[in-house]
Amino acid sequence: MQILLFFGKMLFVLGIYLFLIRIVTIQLADLRARGLAPKNDLGVACLEVLNGTDYLPKGRRFKIESPGLTIGRGKTNDVPLADHFCSVEHANFMHRGGVTILEDKGSTNGTWVNGERIEEKIQLVPGDFIKVGSVTFQYSRQS
Question: Which listed residue, 28, 87, 98, 143, has the most CB atoms within 10 A of its CB?
Fold first, then answer.
């Protein structure tokens, strides 16, 4: 019985340490996002077209740099989409402090990440699938 109690206490202490480590990593990520702590630069943020159109071929890549990247039907966007399911100003990608944030600009048909419609800004991770209109992109980091 005492050995069971001993292992129970050890698991409890281990759980507390894991919880504290998680808090520290979240705080460090927040400081990196604000530019207050050194960041691990994992490379250049990119969007790759997975299902192309005549004007946007499959496999084409777009770099997401610090000024950001805009997608929409309007010609002033960085990635203009000739798609009637896409709004004139559809979505905005912002890359700062090693973090890429995606924001829907109030589009009618929405912006979808991994099959879910986003309602507010969302942080992207490599491998995420982004659907704008009928075009699907994959987010990645390249060195």
Answer: 87
